[in-house]
Design goal:
Elements (H helix, E strand, L loop, with lengths): L1 H6 L27 H13 L3 H10 L7 H8 L6 H8 L2 H16 L9 E2 L2 E2 L11
Helix pairs in contact: 2-3, 2-5, 2-6
Amino acid sequence: VKALLEKTDVKIVVKNYPLSSSCNNGVSSVVHGWACEAAKLSYCANEQGLFKEYYEIIYSIQDQIKKPADLYEILHIGPFDVEELKACADSDAASDFIKKDIAEGNRIHIEGTPTFYFQGQKVPSWRNAYLWI
């Protein structure tokens, strides 16, 4: 994604689609046991004006995350107000926001993450850089 942003004039819109049946009725299993909490925290990080920092930290060390509590430990390495994030993640606002993203993902038949769309069309082979640049 970074290469795409550096070499093209494109706008990226991020939507949450946690791969966990505990909050997403569009998936039948729990791929990431921490995905629902991570999605709510992304909303909360954005509320703090720190979405990019959150995204970069979580994706760079996602293999170290085993359970939702690990997210909060990891977030201490960033510029976040972790207590504020915790309170926000427990809020109806965070849950409602994630539910809307999930509903949209289910409506357009998301099958995994990441999924890319370009001018309203699903990009089937997004990993092939030559399709983008």
